[in-house]
Amino acid sequence: MVDAAHFTVDTPVFVLEQALWRLHLPPKAFSPAAKMPETAEAVSATLTTNRNCTIEITNVSGSFCLINPKVYMSSGFCHHPPQPTVRTTKTEVCSFTKDDNTATGSVGLLTYDLFHMQSRVCSERLVIMFSVPYDHNLYKNKLAVGVVEHSRACDKHLYNQLYDGKDLSSFTHSETHGCGLEYKATYVDLRATMSSIGKAIVKVELYDKMGR
């Protein structure tokens, strides 16, 4: 017989599942409620500055997960940090914002290593460049996505390359008007959109290569 008085809110889930198994109850009967993933729109609504960027990444790939995130900020700082791992079929959200009380925007890079789950090797790196300028009268939001070799650092040099739109063999780049970008790498495809407002939202989808 299982005595419920022996269990507390701190009791490990696997202990509860073993007890439920003895009672012939499904584990879901005592499992904690799953936390619903936050959307980019919900996270963006919590940011109090007028220049920020919220990035939502959806991993549709069945072969790759995203690990080892790195951030480089040319302007502003990371507010909600990127998730350490974006597993297959999962969506994760992070955000970046301007410095308070300064006439600056939210501008930088986010990279993830592409971890091939079958071979357990990281040979390439996913790159997202975002720019939400302070003065929208002079500048527009910019977005670039691409895949580079795993050895490329997430730094000022890589940021400048993407922002200036130079050497686009590894990237696709655009000033944003809500239209989509698509980049086809060797093993994966990227699709991305970015809104054109000061509280910008970026959505990126990662797919296994399609039709090639």
TrEMBL record:
<dbReference type="GO" id="GO:0044218">
    <property type="term" value="C:other organism cell membrane"/>
</dbReference>
<protein>
    <submittedName>
        <fullName>Uncharacterized protein</fullName>
    </submittedName>
</protein>
<dbReference type="InterPro" id="IPR015926">
    <property type="entry name" value="Cytolysin/lectin"/>
</dbReference>
<dbReference type="GO" id="GO:0046930">
    <property type="term" value="C:pore complex"/>
</dbReference>
<keyword id="KW-1053">Target membrane</keyword>
<dbReference type="GO" id="GO:0051715">
    <property type="term" value="P:cytolysis in another organism"/>
</dbReference>
<dbReference type="Pfam" id="PF06369">
    <property type="entry name" value="Anemone_cytotox"/>
</dbReference>
<dbReference type="InterPro" id="IPR009104">
    <property type="entry name" value="Anemon_actinoporin-like"/>
</dbReference>
<dbReference type="GO" id="GO:0046931">
    <property type="term" value="P:pore complex assembly"/>
</dbReference>
<dbReference type="InterPro" id="IPR050677">
    <property type="entry name" value="Actinoporin_PFT"/>
</dbReference>
<dbReference type="GO" id="GO:0006812">
    <property type="term" value="P:monoatomic cation transport"/>
</dbReference>
<keyword id="KW-0472">Membrane</keyword>
<keyword id="KW-0166">Nematocyst</keyword>
<dbReference type="GO" id="GO:0042151">
    <property type="term" value="C:nematocyst"/>
</dbReference>
<dbReference type="GO" id="GO:0015267">
    <property type="term" value="F:channel activity"/>
</dbReference>
<keyword id="KW-1052">Target cell membrane</keyword>
